[in-house]
């Protein structure tokens, strides 16, 4: 039977080790993002009301373009029963997201891809969907992505697709804007094709 001071030592050692592992993961995430010019900033508001405003239907496909640590897609799957998919360029974030999804006991697909190459709505992985409802696409990306993504969404996604953009407008979809959710630090814009 270990004595009390040995136990305290073990607990302290475990705490320090856990902290060091997380620090390594965090630093490698930031370094990768800096090298790829793809900053990781998680959605700061509660994601449930943001998704709810799009009135999702069970089993509808929900795609986060640049899914970060997976928090938005995990909420979509867990709270709304959606077929959730995250595209992410950073392998460390994909690893973290899969871990989070496993802990949350949710079935979410994470696809490591560069959004500039990804087929979005045409990608075969999406055809795991149970019925042919148009998808909901979630975006929290820098304004420099918006024109490229706007074109890609118009080209590849079916009518009825809902696009949620947290923080920034998508100029090419301006005539499809149907509601705005006010919020701090950012509003959220909703478009329907
Ligand atoms: C602002 S964060 C948003 C994260 C998550 N969607 C959220 O709301 O919490 C943007 C994410 O997009 C990813 N990203 C940036 N450029 C990308 C690209 N070209 N292809 C795939 N992912 C990208 C970054 O690695 C980062 O995790």
UniProtKB/TrEMBL annotation:
* GO terms, biological process: methylation
Give the domain of life. Bacteria
> Pfam families given for it?
DOT1 (PF08123)
Q: Does the keyword Methyltransferase apply?
A: yes
Q: Which InterPro entries would you find in this protein's record?
A: DOT1_dom (IPR025789), FAM173A/B (IPR026170), SAM-dependent_MTases_sf (IPR029063)
Please give the start and end residues of each transmembrane region: 6-27
Official protein name in the record? DOT1 domain-containing protein
Source species of the chain:
Candidatus Roizmanbacteria bacterium RIFCSPHIGHO2_02_FULL_43_11
